[in-house]
Design goal:
Chain lengths: 73, 691
């Protein structure tokens, strides 16, 4: 199982599923992080966390701990 | 409500503005309502509520600007407020602002709004950005897909705004709420089947509560805790619904919230595929990307952030900020006060009346008004950061540093402002998205040593630590930061506990803020401060003045030592005995310091028989040495740093917390912390033989 956390800036992946539960998962889904969506890792913040991704044509940021919940194909 | 006038029957309507953050909702609201808007708070919470009237319409149209949200989930305060408002207050029409340049995610909220049983008009905002990209959006296909009216607009250019309101008015007037069955297209057949079954179960409940049965069924299928509690849904019914939900979960091998969200986004993708043709490739570098290459650059990001912060700080509290404060101070306390004094003397007013008007009421108003320009300057910059899109980047860059305190990256700004003045700093906590983060930031911000406390440190450092003044004062600032860090960890653990707000944030494209938007925001803040915080500050100032000026027999006294406050100070001085400064002069000075912290210095001057001074003097230093030791002095400085902030900050805290309970907790926590820290400093120091 590969998660989004393992991707490097510039890499693209397709989302397989989002794990976890409650508010974090719901928020990710609400922001469009859903199955089958393409996601591009844009960059990592200067202090190593959080990360920035491009999804559904906009820029989204979340922490690495949240990226770990995003399983990719 | 119906009322008549000479032109015939006119109606009054309420429209709610709903949309994602950064969708241009505020700009749209400003365009529709102009200067009729009123900014307040939703009851009991720190979330802002904006209302206004639509201009240029014969009918009386109230516009409610609901908080910017991405979804109607039950997880954030903003989302709960928005949906409670819609389902309970039932506005006549929902105007849904959709950012056309980020259409896919924006339409996610739309799929939820069309389920609520209230007519929806979609305002496809920022259409100019789409045109600039040479993308095409087929409005008819969009209308067909969602079953609602869609109108293009560009609020920042003032285009299409009136048409949106006209359309909403038309819908409101047609009165027959078109039962839109189109929302049924959103979900798979399996989900629809389950929904139908749940709907049968909740039909009665829907009738009783007045909610749309379909919406209620969907929410309960999602096991929406808030709604379940609110309607007091029986356990029996819940378990029946849960069973249906579980069947679905087994079929999809996923949880119900995911199934629903997946369904919604799949529906949107389907409509978009038909309605939107993109010329631009998603991965080409936009202007925003280019700016970000520099602004969130690995090496440059933090220096740029610090530079931005320092410039704002310098302008707000250095040059322009302090100039306006000084100028207003002179204007109120010299010019107006002088004029009123001569007027009162000419009229032969009694001394107490003169004192009440000049030293009580006028000075009380002055103590509030001097903050207004500074608040406006700070908020000018804050809205500049917010509207331009930089604020989100600042949070992105600083998140790691503040996460340890349980705070998000955006808390950095209020904290930093705290070194200037707690009043605008506390108000700046508004920029945080999460209610818990806001409350925590408000509690911690006054621990950052504000400018008014410096004269106290300067006085004591000069009197007791002549050789190491700089180091000693610096250590007090560090102490404040340290206490804030420890308090952050403590409060998050025990008081403001609960699920951590996820850091999942949009980085909106950079935009050029409009001067109109900035000035409206700035004036709102100034007005809000005077109206809301002002009453508290004014009342407190007058009460304190009274306590300081009159004796227990209601005689006016010259020396504050003889006043009611002096008496109280003497009475409570035992409280400070374990901290080392049990001399009554110290406790009276601390009491008067609540007016403004620098007043501690002048009170000590008067009580020590040196006279009223505002800066440290050699005479006062010598006098202080008779009842302070260096250790006691240090404990006193620490106490001054940490105990409850001045009345102006108190008023700002009350305004922002929007709750007396939280306000009193805040100042209680601060004063308790001050006592404990000063106690530890004094007692440990004594044991170490520093006494």
């Amino acid at each position: 199982m590969k998660t989004l956390k393992e991707l490097k800036p510039g890499e693209i992946a397709v989302i397989k599923s989002v794990t976890g539960e409650g508010i974090v998962k719901r928020r990710l889904m609400d922001m469009g992080v859903t199955r089958g969506t393409e996601v591009l890792v844009r960059k990592v913040a200067p202090l190593g966390d959080p990360i920035e991704v491009n999804i559904r044509g906009y820029e989204l940021t979340f922490r690495k701990s949240e990226a770990e919940n995003i399983i990719i194909e | 409500m119906v009322f008549n006038d000479e032109r015939g029957i006119e109606m009054s309507y309420t429209f709610a503005l709903v949309g994602n953050p950064n969708s241009g909702k505020t700009t749209m609201f400003n365009e529709i309502t102009g200067n009729t808007q009123y900014v307040g708070n939703w009851p009991g919470v720190t979330v802002e509520k904006k209302e206004g009237k639509a201009r240029r319409f014969k009918d009386d149209i109230s516009i409610i600007d609901l908080p910017g949200i991405y979804s109607l989930s039950p997880y954030t305060m903003e989302e709960i407020i928005a949906r409670d408002y819609i389902v309970d207050e039932k506005p006549d029409v929902i105007i849904n602002i959709v950012d056309a340049s980020n259409i896919e995610r924006n339409l996610y909220l739309t799929t939820q709004l069309i389920e609520l049983g209230i007519p929806v008009v979609v305002a496809l905002n920022m259409i100019d950005v789409v045109n600039l990209r040479h993308d095409k959006i087929d409005i008819e296909k969009l209308e067909e897909g969602f079953g609602v009216s869609v109108l293009v607009a560009s609020a920042s250019k003032g285009l299409g705004v009136t048409e949106v309101v006209e359309k909403a008015l038309e819908l409101a007037k047609s009165a027959t709420v078109k039962k839109s069955e189109l929302s049924h297209r959103i979900f798979d057949n399996e989900v629809e089947d389950s929904l139908k079954k749940v709907k049968e179960l909740v039909n009665m409940l829907a009738n009783k509560s007045g909610y749309s049965a379909r919406w209620l069924a969907l929410k309960l299928l999602e096991e929406d805790i808030k709604l379940k509690e609110k309607l007091d849904v029986s356990e029996v019914m819940m378990s029946d619904i849960k069973k249906l939900g579980q069947e679905l979960e087994n079929k999809y091998d996923n949880d119900i919230e995911t199934i629903i969200a997946d369904n919604r986004y799949r529906f949107i993708s389907g409509v978009i595929a038909k309605a939107v043709s993109r010329k631009s490739k998603g991965n080409t570098l936009t202007m925003s990307d280019k700016i970000d290459k520099v602004v969130t650059n690995r090496i440059l990001a933090i220096p740029i952030f610090l530079l931005v912060m320092l410039s704002i700080f310098q302008v707000s509290f250095g040059s322009i900020g302090s100039y306006t404060i000084d100028w207003l101070d002179v204007f109120i306390n010299k010019t107006i006060s002088g004029f009123l004094t001569s007027l009162l003397e000419a009229g032969g007013a009694a001394d107490w009346l003169k004192a009440l008007i000049i030293d009580g009421i006028l000075a009380g108003m002055g103590s509030m008004l001097v903050f207004v320009p500074q608040i406006m300057i700070v908020f000018f910059f804050l809205s500049l950061l917010e509207d331009s899109g930089y604020m989100a980047r600042a949070a992105f860059v600083m998140d790691r540093v503040l996460r340890k305190l349980g705070l998000s990256g955006k808390s950095f700004i209020p904290m930093l402002m705290g070194f200037g003045c707690s009043v605008p700093a506390v108000m700046a906590a508004r920029t945080l998205e999460n209610e818990k983060d806001r409350r925590l930031t408000i509690i911690l911000t006054p621990f950052m040593s504000c400018g008014a406390r410096l004269p106290v440190y300067a006085l004591f450092a000069a009197a007791f630590f002549a050789k190491n003044q700089g180091v000693v004062i610096f250590s007090i600032y560090i102490l404040g930061i340290l206490i804030a860090v420890l308090s952050g960890i403590f409060l998050k653990r025990f008081i403001l506990k609960g699920e951590v707000a996820p850091f999942v944030m949009e980085l909106p494209p950079y935009r050029i803020p409009t001067l109109k938007g900035l000035s409206i925001h700035m004036l709102d803040r100034g007005k809000g401060f005077v109206k809301k915080a002002g009453t508290v500050i004014f009342a407190a100032s007058v009460i304190i003045w009274f306590l300081q000026t009159f004796s227990f027999t209601f005689q006016m006294v010259e020396n504050p030592a003889d006043s009611i406050m002096g008496g109280v100070g003497r009475l409570i001085s035992f409280v400070f005995a374990p901290l080392g400064f049990n001399d009554w002069r110290a406790s009276v000075a601390l009491l008067t310091g609540v007016v403004a912290k620098e007043v501690v210095v002048s009170t000590l001057g008067i009580l020590s028989g040196v006279g009223e001074i505002s800066e440290g003097s050699a005479e006062l230093a010598i006098a202080l040495q008779t009842y302070f030791t260096p250790l006691k002095a240090y404990a006193f400085m620490a106490f001054t740093l940490l105990y409850m902030p001045c009345v102006a900050a108190f008023g700002a805290i009350k305004r922002e917390m929007n709750s007396w309970k939280w306000t009193l907790f805040t100042v209680g926590y601060q004063t308790g912390t001050a006592w404990l820290v000063a106690f530890l400093i004094y007692q440990v120091g004594k044991v170490m033989g520093l006494g």
